[in-house]
Design goal:
globular, alpha/beta, 5 strands, five-stranded parallel sheet
């Protein structure tokens, strides 16, 4: 799998991955704001946000109608739609594209839910690899506490309740997210993840993210008045 840079796209794609509650969304939004303040061409996209399938996904979740295979295929449809209609065109136009979750989310979640690993990877074989992938590695207890600080209870699917791992949603969360962490770490070397200590304060993490992005991408070439070449 080649990166967008290796495929000679003018733009660059930066993805963040992590467990629910790892703080990855906070980090990528802070990065987006920082890049925008420098007058750079930036586009943001998040997992499961395509208008094409969003309502179907929401309805299926509420009625718990989704099998692991159906879950996987719906998310793949969502990703393919965004990839073809948003990500690729903007990368061709020389934008820095920021993705809150990328295909690695499917590689982890779908496999933990019982889908064959190679089958999942084959579904996404049309997608290029990000130019940078940050993985925010937080302890399960830190992730759980961050979620509960923001809302009163866990969501059904983020706790893995559909897998019948435990009747206790908190214990189910620990088991499910622990399995996801194993999947992420197993693929971290092959896909060159930049592993971040997500237990650190937000400001410390963001400072390091900005340093890494600035050292690996020629940001000055992504201003609106310059050709997008790195």
């Amino acid at each position: 799998m080649k990166t967008f840079a290796e495929l000679n796209f003018p733009g660059r794609l930066i993805a963040v991955e992590g467990l629910d509650g790892s703080g990855k969304s906070t980090q990528i939004h802070l990065l987006k704001r920082w890049l925008e303040l420098q007058g750079l061409k930036v586009y943001f996209s998040e997992w499961n946000s395509s208008e094409l399938v969003k309502s179907a996904t929401s309805k299926g979740k509420k009625m718990t109608l989704l099998t692991p295979t159906t879950f996987s295929l719906i998310h793949a449809t969502d990703f393919a739609d965004r990839y073809e209609r948003h990500l690729v065109p903007l990368l061709r136009a020389g934008y820095i594209v920021l993705c809150d979750r990328y295909i690695f989310t499917a590689y982890a979640r779908d496999v933990v839910r019982g889908c064959p690993p190679q089958w999942v990877r084959d579904i996404y074989n049309f997608a290029a690899q990000p130019d940078l992938t940050f993985f925010f590695k937080a302890s399960l207890e830190v992730s759980l506490q961050r979620i509960l600080d923001g809302r009163p209870q866990l969501k059904y699917f983020e706790a893995g309740m559909d897998l019948r791992l435990s009747n206790d949603p908190y214990e189910s969360f620990r088991i499910f997210q622990g399995r996801l962490l194993e999947q992420y770490l197993a693929m971290s070397t092959d896909y060159k993840f930049l592993i971040m200590d997500a237990n650190q304060p937000v400001e410390v993490q963001q400072s390091l993210v900005r340093q890494l992005v600035g050292s690996k991408i020629n940001l000055a070439s992504f201003t609106y008045d310059k050709a997008a070449t790195v």
